[in-house]
Amino acid sequence: MAKSERELMLGGKLYSCNDPELLRAREKAEDLCFAFNHTLPSDPKRREILAKLAPNIHPNAFLRGPFLCDYGTNIEMGEGCYANWNLTVLDVCPVKLGKNVFMGPNVTLCTAEHPLVAKERMCFLDPKIGITDLEYGKPISIGDGVWLGEGVTVLGGVHIGENSVIGAGSLVTHDIPDNTLAYGVPAKAIRKITEKDELRFHPELFDLERK
After folding, report:
1. Residue 138 sits in which domain range?
2. SS3 content of the chain, % helix, strand, coil (to 5)
């Protein structure tokens, strides 16, 4: 039995993004993103909208908004996660975040990929499914306790290990091990995060007059 375009998409195979089922799903997600982003943060309905948009985001995860995504249904986010302004998730493939993942403003998680050859990126008429535009994707997974700094972009096919920190403005194109500080374009592992990074070794950060 032939796979649907949605099944091909989630499996990381070439698929047509102009498939009617996918067009409807993206339109629904776009409407829900608009509703979420135009609802007062203090309004309880905002949480209800997010649950409809991305049902696999844990109820106590917090997204400040604005928030944008392709489908929402392919995003999994664990408890205690936090996203600052302007989180964008292109979730044509699964995007899985563990627990207590913190994201600064303007973070992008992008699973979408396009053919490198120009003529293969163009829309064309397929006799079976009509106008089509071939794309594919690669999943993203981010471990528990990760911190993504402001303006970080994570590309498809990347796994970021537990408790790692990605510096502001970085482009993550390859896997990052657990407990690692990484930054740069592309991001590179700089060093391990160790006990010496604990706050008790940085008294200069404390206001000694504070009670």
Report:
1. 5-205
2. 20, 30, 50
